[in-house]
Structure formats: structure tokens, C-alpha cells
Amino acid sequence: MLARMNSRIQRWLESKPQRYALALAVTAFFLVLRGVLDPVIGSYVPYLAVLPAIVFSAWFCGLGPSILSMLLAFLGEQYWFIPPFHTLRISGTPDRAGAIVYFLVSLTIIIFAETTRRITAKLATTTDKLRETGEELGRSHAELEQRVSERTSQLQQTNVELRTQTDVVRQLSSRLLQMQDEERRRIARELHDSVGQIVAALGMNLSAVQRESDHLSPDAAADVAESANLVSELSRQIRTISHLLHPPLLDEVGLVSALQHYVEGFAERSKIQVSLDLPTDLGRLPPEMETAIFRIVQECLTNVHRHSGSTSAAVRIAKTANQLRLEVQDAGKGIPSEKQSEIACHGKTGVGMSGMRERLRQFGGQLEVTSVPGQTVVAATLPVRQAQGKSAISA
Ligand SMILES: Nc1ncnc2c1ncn2[C@@H]1O[C@H](COP(=O)(O)OP(=O)(O)O)[C@@H](O)[C@H]1O
Ligand SMILES: [Mg+2]
Are 263 and 315 in contact (CB under 8 A)? Predict the structure, then answer.
């Protein structure tokens, strides 16, 4: 309440003339009051009655007005109420001492009030600044929070988009692999059934001509014999290419036979000695899984031939109730370490490694590559359901 009144007065006293006017009015009021009370107090306690005017002026009106008030109060007191009256002359030591005490007390009050006012003003400024800083901090904090939440939602959105795109890419690459397998199967069949049949017919015709070679000149007979050899070589090559593109045994008899046949052919062509260790009870697996395992073995052995420099390799398949593990090991020079780190962090390795990984991913499997100079092991593990019987062949 007092503080509110005080602040209202302070606001009113913001202009200088108003402060001087008020100091004058208050001093005049207390001088008049002093006059009214004069019969009671006389000059017993000089200046005491006008001190409230000094206190008021010092507190509310500031330095200049309060000094003016002090001087006017002194003059008024001296002129009207301290003998000899109606003169400003100070007579005698007690009066002089009284005047000195009056000035000392007044100045103390004025200095105290002024100091208090300055400290209060400084405090108010500091408080204002602090409040402003606090408000600014609050605003910055809110702004930051807003930005963080915006960024978070943007990131979430990007994440969702990325995940969707990754899914699309994965679906696409798995579809591509599937289409590649289908295409290879189709070309293999075409080669075998169409080109292969024509070449076989050509071979038969050449054999017929060879049987009649007595009627030919020696040169023509030699040409026919050479052509018959070329045709049988061509037929063999078409068969090999067709089998490499898609081993017919894989669909018909299953992974075990297809692998045995492929490994034999690979060893013969590459002159790399390959051991094959397969479980006796492997049975039939889902067709896509058999194709995937066959293609992985094919890629691994091609890598051994192309990159390792090894003269031997081992292919092992082990199967537990719910997992199948395939290992292809060689005794070659090993994968260079920079290629290994690229392979480990799924970087831009060759198509072979990422293709194998992609094939395995479709079945929830994974690829592990460990390589040191002298040995490289590529291991694929994939979950399998209970072994399926031979009845699954026709499925
Ligand atoms: N058995 C291996 N021995 C040595 N290096 C290998 C072997 N297998 C793979 N690599 C290295 O890893 C790289 C990636 O293999 P891959 O993804 O199959 O690509 P590509 O065979 O097309 O080069 C190869 O380029 C080769 O340097
Ligand atoms: Mg390769």
C-alpha cells in the first residue's frame, strides 16, 4: 500500500519544477505549523518542527529541492521563531551550535535519502535488466524448443521416407534377382532345347555324311571329320553354358546333386581341387532357397578362381534343426583389408558380395566374411524350417 503510494508520488514527481514546488509547499506548511505551535514549543527545541519538511523533501523531491527546503526552513526559523525575531542574525554560541546541528542533521538526512534513492534506482535498473534478460532467455528457450521439435519431426519424416525407400530398393533388388534367375532358367532351357537340338541334328547329319566318306575326296572327308568334331565340341559347350546358367538337376533332383555336378565341372574347368561336404539328410529345401544356396556357392567358387589364386577350396554345408550354415573356404592370398572393410560395412563392394547378401536377406539369413593371407572363409547362415521330404520335389 505504502509502496504503491510512494511509487505514485514518484511518478508525479518525475518533473523537476513539480519537485521544487512540492518542496517549497511542504517547507512553507511546516513553517506555518511551527508558527501555530509556537506558543507551545517556543524556541526550546529550535528547528525540530521544520525537520519533517526536510525529511519529506529529501525522500520525495530529490537533492536540489531538499537543499532548498533545508535553507528556506533555516531562514524561516531564524527569521520568525528564533530571537532576535525578524532578523537573520545569529546571536550567541547556543544558537550557532543549534544552527550547525540543524545543518548536520539535515545534510545527513539528505545524503542518506539521496544515497538510498540512487541505490534503489540502480537496483531497479538491475532488476529490469535481469527481468529483460530472463524474458529474452525464456523466449530463446521457447524458440529453441520449437526448432528442436520442428527438426525432430522433419527427421522423423525423413526417416520414414528413407525406410520406405529402403524397402522399395530391397523389394526391387530381390525382384531383380528373382527375374535374373527366371531369365537364366529360360535362356538355359532355350539353349538346351532349341539350339542344342539343332546342333544335335547337325551332328547326326554329319555322322551320316561321314559314313559315306568313301565317296568323298580325302580333303572333303577330313573336313567332314573336323566339322563333326567341332559340332560335338559345340554341343558340349552349349550344354555346359546351359548348365551353368541354370543347372537342370537343381529343379529335378535337388541341391545336393546339383552341387555335386557343378563342383565336379568347376574343378575340371578351373583345375582347382574342391572338396564338398554335405549332410546326408539335407533333403529338399524350398526351391528359392535351393537356388539361393546354389548361386552363393557358384559366386564363392568363381571368386576363389578369379581372385584368390588358391589351388584348393572346400564347400561345407551343415544343418541343425532350424539353421543351415554354408561355408566356402580357400587357401588363397586373402581379401585386401580395404576391400574387407568395404564388405563389412556393406559399402560399394563388387556385385557378387552384395548379391549374396541380398539373396540371404530374403530368408532372414546373413553373410560373414573372414579373411587373412592364406585363408578366406565366406560363411552364410540362414534359418530353415524342419527338413522337407522328397515329396516336396514336385511342389
Ligand atoms: N576368395 C577370395 N580371395 C581373395 N579375394 C577375394 C575373394 N573373394 C572376393 N575377393 C575380393 O573381394 C572383392 C569383392 O568380391 P565380389 O563382390 O564377388 O566382386 P567381383 O568378384 O565382381 O570383383 C573382389 O573384387 C576381390 O578383390
Ligand atoms: Mg565375384
Answer: yes
Ligand nearest to the CA of 307: 1
- State pLDDT tens for residues 266-296: 999 999 999 999 998 888 899 989 999 999 9
Residue 364, classed as helix, strand or coil, is coil
CA distance 325 to 366: 10
Q: Is the CB–ligand 1 distance for residue 303 below 6 Å? A: yes
* Residue 199, ligand 1, Cβ within 6 A: no
DSSP state of 388: B
pLDDT in tens, 328-379: 999 999 999 888 888 877 666 678 898 899 899 989 999 999 999 999 999 9
Domain residue extents for the chain: 2-139, 272-389
pTM value > 0.90: no
Q: How far apart are CA 380 and CA 216, in angstroms?
A: 60
CA 296 – ligand 1 centroid, Å: 13
Q: Which of 369, 373, 390 is nearest to 253 (CA)?
A: 390
Q: How far apart are CA 109 and CA 58, in angstroms?
A: 7
Name the residue of 296, 302, 303, 308 whose CB sits within 8 Å of the most ligand 1 atoms, as the mutation to test its pocket: 303
Q: In this structure, is the dihedral angle defined by the CA atoms of residues 300, 305, 310 and 311, taken in order, positive or negative?
A: positive
CB-ligand 1 contact for 328 (6 Å cutoff):
no
For 272-389, the fitting CATH number among 3.30.450.180, 3.30.565.10, 3.30.1490.20, 3.50.50.60 is 3.30.565.10
Q: Which amino acid is at 175?
A: R
Amino acid letter for position 348: K
Report whether 50 contacts 73 (CB < 8 A): yes
What's the 222 CA to ligand 1 centre distance in angstroms? 46
* Residue 243 grid coordinates: 548348365
